[in-house]
């Protein structure tokens, strides 16, 4: 049982599990922090960005000045942004049988895996995961493809050159593995390989392994996975939440009795309380708008935005913001809002009961109906006519490198009346802002990450009691910037096994049992014997059939010929065909009773001698002796088969068969 | 022999008040809890006293499963749970859970408020009953208790309709509820995997019908509606608020749009908008096309179809009215029917099955003079059309489902006895499985032959699969083990392990046989001859000649000594343990025959 670790990012995992002859990929996260090294992609040419000076080496050489630009002391690659893919060399990915997806954020590398590695297996995910995952991919592809950027920089990736660059470019890992965004046809091809599953659905893989998604409480359709055979259970916990937001609550009980629990996707901001952050978000938003400024919220088109809109729904009237327009701009804004309303079965109880009324589960339906929230596919078209300031704009991408957010950063960055509020925790907000410096607009950091924190993890582990915990190495030590905070790491016994990118782990457990089925006719033929109170046993001689990893025991076929004698089943003239198996024996033979039995069966000249360990029973006329000891019996006789068989059967009467 | 027992309390050789009791491996499950549209007396509900005369139902039933929201499948539920008394779990899908209470309330209102019946369940009882409902997802395995699990499959038919698999250990039953094997304008087709249940309980409403293509029926329907409207007639389409109504609305809506028709279409009850709203919110349960396009255009937002007011019925000119209920047995559809029946320009289209005793059934069987309440005779002059739009599987569909699920037995419910008989023969001929069709109250017993799952120690399994020189898939592998049974756990282990676990020592039984051989040669030459002889015969065995002069055949030891008195006779001592009994016995008899003449 091995785990191949293909991603070093703890919240965007990609692991491959070899479990009982099946190869299972767990998630396929795409590390997009690489895009922070690139210049933003503006929809319309930005004079500021195009005037940035090229980067010059210390020795004055300028051969990189087309590829690298400098902005406020930072160096950026001037090219189409690229993403850091999961490791593809660690094992042959065409051998992956199935991919299990835990939530829509963790499937963004799917097209790279399914379309470029010879993958021929099946992907399993819940319906909301697939639908919203598609929206995220669509938005990503759209926001990159609509800005044709001829230039693609590659010179800086040369190892010799990279060494000369300033940080963080110098330290960027695996730059040769960075890839441009995939296309819509590739997205569609990848998604067509997905099979939809529901929570608590048992999915059989090749008869050997069963996988089951469980609600993880983090996002619409987000799931943890149980991977088990009859005797081993691996729980894959990825992106789980115990907070009550919109999704169905996390199913913890089903994680119990795991041999191994793989733990990924914990909160990225362990020190921030999501509720407090939402409060700060609202108050900062209100303050800015009241002062006549605009608010920009860089966000993904699904997820936390639903919760923010719900908070605002309750908040705007009391805060006197009823007349402020809220804009949600994304090529998938409409779809995201519509889809959120049709997944009632995946929502928390409160939202589910609304659907029974029938009312839409999310109040943003009402915000749209009352015209307080308006959504647009992009800043072009209707939006430019409707656009009124001051206003609040929700748009992507949270990295601030592409999407309509770039436009608003350029538009509003110069005024200190405006505020950008960061709610998505995936990117460092300072890094995200770097290419926009110097900036007059206010920046507020309210990261909302509802995933498990370390206190919740330790409670969870106490609750479900896995034998072993496996997690990314980042979780086994305090955060680098807060090395004194030993509470910000996983604390469990035995200590968690950690992994890092491109590592192979051997998972610590040993199987001892397997399931086998006994056919009814064989079961009928068994003769159970109570050997101790409450314990019975039966010897089983049977034919084993193994097909599709399932084992079945059947009655052995009857011997083809009739038995030669009454007692012998086989004809002794034929070479015994297969080694027939005789049971083991146990028990001891009381000499007095044995002699009595012999006499009863017509042996009249029985003589008994005592030895150090037992007795010798002599049958004088037959020149036969039987050594009886506590744990053994030895019959020594002439070649008189009927006699030997008779003695054998008499001895066997005293013994138990196993 | 383990067995599964099935007793229909309703829907046995009948359509209406579906209710089937199943006993499987000690668990009792009730499938559906419906009412009968054809009766207004005690017979409208299943006879629950069959389950127990005086005990509490909760003690006798492990769970209740409702397949879909039609009243003939859930109409008796509040009576059953609140008036007779049942507190155990009731399972249904989310859409069923959402819509079921609304139809129950509707039914209650008609019965109590309009017909003035007392001793009927109340609104509060409906609410209390629904609190006992656990909603299930498609394909989710729901663990009712440690042994009993259920799983829902998509059934088409109406929004949220499901088939259910009920499983205990290796034994399982599938109950189809009502299903549809062909997708329609708003729902997908039923689907089930090859789950090989011991028993498939299937509806058989259209046991003998093989319906023509849906497209033809739709064209026919539109033609008839169009012609009637063109000549200024009124069209009445009695429907149930949810289900066929939406399909026909989509059909008419698109037709009106395409043909640019102006005649008004009305939908009679206040349920309309609400009903359509359910379809919008549960769009994941509709067919693929609607699901894919719902963001751009939601098929359940109708432009041409408006709410009906009872005054409209007297308006002059053509119109189309969808009115509930669907079998013309009460309510608005019956009122409108009475108003329009006398005019031959008008038309009533019955789009679904009608239960015996209903006005719908009467006019479909050709009756044109109906006796109404107060001995009034109503003469039906309007055209009566029947179009099978109700979404049940036809004979072809039922056979298709059987092919998909591969059951070992089939049991028919929810159909008419005569038609069932025909289908039963067909099923038995084609699939060679037993097919049953019990009447209400009649118990069918099906013997099952479940395998017994046990735990086998990996050591034993590996050992046995490794035996034999070459793994030959065709050759059966023999294995020997000891089955330990303690409490309810069954473990198959090697005999050695069994002894060890029980703290017992092995008793070794050994045989040593003296075989006399006439051979004047020296001892070691005799041994060599014996060795060559055995080697030649026992080709599949490991025969070895050891340096100390002995021979082994597998673990059997053969030693030669000279006879103390007769130098021309050699004594072979053949020694083996009981575990090698067969080979040892064989060897002694082989050696007794003497050695072949050397050449």
From TrEMBL, chain A:
Cytoplasm as a keyword of this entry, yes or no, is: yes
**UniProt keyword list:** Cytoplasm, Nucleus
The signal peptide here is none
SUPFAM superfamilies assigned = Metallo-hydrolase/oxidoreductase (SSF56281)
In its UniProt record, which GO terms are filed under biological process? negative regulation of transmembrane receptor protein serine/threonine kinase signaling pathway; regulation of cellular response to growth factor stimulus; RNA polymerase II transcription initiation surveillance; snRNA 3'-end processing
| Primary site of residence | cytoplasm
Q: Name one GO cellular component term.
A: integrator complex
Q: Where in the cell is it found?
A: Cytoplasm; Nucleus
- Outline the extent of the Beta-Casp domain: 305-433
Among CDD domains, the record links this protein to:
Int9-like_MBL-fold
Do you know which PANTHER family this protein is assigned to?
A: INTEGRATOR COMPLEX SUBUNIT 9
Could you say which protein family the record assigns here?
A: Belongs to the metallo-beta-lactamase superfamily. RNA-metabolizing metallo-beta-lactamase-like family. INTS9 subfamily.
From the Swiss-Prot or TrEMBL record, give the protein name. Integrator complex subunit 9
Natural source organism: Helopsaltes ochotensis (Middendorff's grasshopper-warbler)
The organism's taxonomy opens as: Eukaryota, Metazoa, Chordata, Craniata, Vertebrata
TrEMBL record, chain B:
Keywords, alphabetical: Cytoplasm, Hydrolase, Metal-binding, Nucleus, Zinc
This chain is encoded by the gene named Ints11
Q: Is Cell inner membrane a UniProt keyword of this protein?
A: no
Q: Which cofactor does it need?
A: Zn(2+)
The molecular function GO annotations come to: hydrolase activity; metal ion binding; RNA endonuclease activity
InterPro entries named in the record: Beta_Casp, INTS11-like_MBL-fold, IntS11_C, MBL, Metallo-B-lactamas, RibonucZ/Hydroxyglut_hydro, RMMBL
Under which name does UniProt file this protein? Answer: Integrator complex subunit 11
Q: Which SMART domains match?
A: Beta-Casp (SM01027), Lactamase_B (SM00849)
Q: Which family does it belong to?
A: Belongs to the metallo-beta-lactamase superfamily. RNA-metabolizing metallo-beta-lactamase-like family. INTS11 subfamily.
What is one GO cellular-component annotation here? cytoplasm
- Where is it localised? Cytoplasm; Nucleus
The Metallo-beta-lactamase domain is annotated at: 16-233
Q: Where is the Beta-Casp domain?
A: 245-363
Any Gene Ontology biological process? snRNA processing
């Amino acid at each position: 049982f091995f785990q191949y670790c293909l991603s070093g990012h703890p919240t965007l995992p990609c692991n491959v599990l070899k479990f009982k002859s099946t190869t299972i990929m767990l998630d396929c996260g795409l590390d997009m922090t690489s895009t922070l090294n690139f210049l933003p992609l503006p929809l319309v040419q930005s004079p500021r960005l195009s005037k940035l000076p090229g980067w010059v080496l210390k020795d004055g050489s300028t051969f990189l000045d087309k590829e690298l630009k400098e902005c406020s002391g930072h160096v950026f690659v001037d090219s189409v942004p690229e993403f850091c893919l999961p490791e593809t060399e660690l094992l042959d990915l065409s051998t992956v049988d199935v991919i299990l997806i835990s939530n829509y954020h963790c499937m963004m590398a799917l097209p790279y895996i399914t379309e470029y590695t010879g993958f021929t297996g099946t992907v399993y995910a819940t319906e909301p995961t697939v639908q919203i995952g598609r929206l995220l991919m669509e938005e990503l592809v759209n926001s990159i493809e609509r800005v044709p950027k001829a230039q693609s920089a590659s010179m800086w990736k040369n190892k010799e050159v990279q060494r000369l660059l300033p940080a963080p470019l110098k330290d960027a890992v695996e730059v040769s593995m960075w890839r441009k965004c995939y296309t819509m046809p590739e997205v569609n091809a990848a998604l067509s390989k997905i099979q939809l599953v529901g929570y608590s659905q048992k999915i059989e893989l090749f008869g050997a392994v069963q996988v089951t998604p469980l609600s993880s409480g983090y996002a619409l359709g987000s799931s943890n996975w149980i991977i088990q055979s009859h005797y081993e259970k691996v729980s894959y916990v990825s992106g789980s939440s115990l907070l009550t937001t919109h999704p169905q609550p996390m199913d913890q009980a089903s994680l119990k009795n795991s041999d191994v629990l793989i733990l990924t996707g914990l909160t990225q901001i362990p020190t921030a309380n999501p509720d407090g952050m939402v409060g700060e978000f609202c108050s900062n938003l209100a303050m800015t708008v009241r002062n006549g400024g605009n608010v920009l919220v860089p966000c993904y088109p699904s997820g936390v935005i639903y919760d923010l809109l719900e908070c605002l729904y309750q908040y705007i009237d009391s805060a006197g913001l009823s007349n402020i327009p809220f804009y949600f701009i994304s090529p998938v804004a409409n779809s995201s809002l519509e889809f959120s309303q049709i997944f009632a079965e995946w929502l928390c109880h409160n939202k589910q009961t609304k659907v029974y009324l029938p009312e839409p589960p999310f109040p943003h339906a009402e915000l749209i109906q009352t015209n307080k929230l308006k959504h647009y596919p992009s800043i072009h078209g209707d939006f430019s006519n409707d656009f009124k300031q001051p206003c609040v704009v929700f748009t992507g991408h949270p990295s601030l490198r592409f999407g309509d957010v770039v436009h608003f950063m350029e538009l509003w960055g110069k005024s200190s009346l405006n505020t950008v509020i960061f709610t998505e925790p995936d990117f460092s907000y300072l890094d995200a802002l770097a290419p926009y410096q110097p900036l007059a607009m206010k920046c507020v950091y309210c990261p909302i990450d509802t995933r498990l924190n370390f206190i919740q993890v330790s409670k969870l582990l106490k609750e479900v009691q896995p034998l072993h915990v496996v997690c990314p190495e980042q979780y086994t030590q305090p955060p680098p910037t807060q090395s004194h905070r030993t509470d910000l790491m996983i604390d469990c016994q035995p200590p968690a096994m950690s992994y890092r990118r491109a590592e192979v782990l051997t998972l610590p457990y040993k199987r001892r049992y397997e399931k086998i089925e006994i056919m009814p006719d064989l079961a009928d033929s068994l003769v159970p014997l109570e050997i101790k109170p409450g314990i019975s046993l039966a010897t089983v001689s049977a034919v084993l059939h193994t097909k599709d990893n399932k084992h079945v025991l059947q009655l052995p076929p009857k011997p083809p010929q009739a038995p030669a004698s009454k007692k012998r089943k086989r004809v002794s003239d034929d070479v015994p065909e297969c080694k027939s198996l005789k049971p083991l024996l146990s028990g001891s033979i009381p000499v007095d009773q044995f002699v009595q039995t012999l006499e009863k069966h017509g042996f009249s000249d029985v003589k008994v001698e005592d030895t150090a360990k037992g007795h010798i029973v002599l049958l004088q006329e037959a020149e036969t002796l039987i050594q009886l000891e506590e744990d053994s019996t030895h019959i020594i006789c002439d070649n008189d088969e009927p006699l030997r068989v008779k003695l054998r059967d008499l001895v066997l009467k005293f013994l138990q068969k196993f | 022999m383990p067995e599964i027992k099935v007793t229909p309390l309703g829907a046995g050789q009948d359509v209406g008040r579906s209710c089937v009791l199943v006993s499987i491996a000690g668990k009792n499950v009730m499938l559906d809890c419906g009412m009968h549209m054809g009766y207004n007396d005690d017979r409208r509900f299943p006879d629950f006293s069959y389950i127990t005369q005086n005990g509490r139902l909760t003690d006798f039933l492990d769970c209740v499963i409702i397949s879909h929201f039609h009243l003939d499948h859930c109409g008796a539920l509040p009576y059953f749970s609140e008036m007779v008394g049942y507190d155990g779990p009731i399972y249904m899908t989310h859409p069923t859970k959402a819509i079921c209470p609304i139809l129950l309330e509707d039914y209650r209102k008609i019965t109590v408020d309009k017909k003035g019946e007392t001793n009927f369940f109340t609104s509060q009882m409906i609410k209390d009953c629904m609190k006992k409902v656990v909603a299930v997802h498609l394909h989710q395995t729901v663990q009712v208790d440690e042994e009993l699990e259920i799983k829902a499959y998509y059934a088409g038919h109406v929004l949220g309709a499901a088939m259910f698999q009920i499983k205990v250990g290796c034994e399982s039953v599938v109950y189809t509820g009502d299903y549809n094997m062909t997708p329609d304008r708003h729902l997908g087709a039923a689907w089930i995997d090859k789950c090989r249940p011991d028993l498939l309980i299937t509806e058989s409403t259209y046991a003998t019908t093989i319906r023509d293509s849906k497209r033809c029926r739709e064209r026919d329907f539109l033609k008839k509606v169009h012609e009637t409207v063109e000549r200024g007639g009124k069209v009445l389409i009695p429907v149930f608020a949810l289900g066929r109504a939406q399909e026909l609305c989509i059909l008419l809506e698109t037709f009106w749009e395409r043909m640019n028709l102006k005649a008004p279409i009305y939908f009679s009850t206040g349920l309309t908008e609400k009903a359509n709203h359910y379809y919008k919110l549960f769009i994941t349960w509709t067919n693929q096309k609607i699901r894919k396009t719902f963001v751009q255009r939601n098929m359940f937002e109708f432009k041409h179809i408006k709410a009906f007011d009872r005054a409209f019925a007297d308006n002059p000119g053509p119109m189309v009215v969808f009115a509930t209920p669907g079998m013309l047995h009460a309510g608005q559809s019956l009122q409108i029917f009475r108003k329009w029946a006398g005019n031959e320009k008008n038309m009533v289209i019955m789009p679904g099955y009608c239960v015996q005793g209903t006005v719908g059934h009467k006019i479909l069987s050709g009756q044109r003079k109906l006796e109404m309440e107060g001995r009034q005779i109503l003469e039906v002059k309007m055209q009566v059309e029947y179009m099978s739009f109700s979404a049940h599987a036809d004979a072809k569909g039922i056979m298709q489902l059987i092919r998909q699920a591969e059951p070992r037995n089939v049991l028919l419910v929810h159909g008419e006895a005569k038609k069932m008989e025909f289908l039963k023969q067909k099923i038995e001929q084609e699939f060679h499985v037993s097919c049953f069709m019990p009447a209400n109250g009649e118990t069918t017993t099906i013997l099952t032959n479940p395998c017994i799952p046990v735990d086998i120690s990996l050591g034993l399994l590996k050992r046995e699969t490794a035996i034999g020189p070459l793994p030959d898939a065709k050759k059966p592998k023999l294995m020997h083990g000891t089955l330990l049974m303690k409490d309810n756990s069954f473990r198959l282990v090697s005999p050695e392990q069994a002894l060890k676990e029980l703290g017992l020592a092995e008793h070794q039984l050994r045989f040593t046989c003296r075989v006399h051989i006439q051979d004047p040669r020296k001892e070691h030459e005799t041994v060599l001859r014996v060795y060559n002889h055995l080697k030649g015969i026992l080709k599949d065995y490991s025969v070895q000649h050891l340096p100390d002069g002995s021979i082994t055949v597998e673990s059997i030891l053969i030693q030669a000594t000279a006879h103390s008195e007769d130098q021309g006779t050699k004594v072979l001592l053949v020694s083996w343990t009981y575990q090698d009994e067969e080979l040892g016995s064989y060897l002694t008899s082989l050696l007794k025959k003497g050695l072949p003449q050397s050449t």
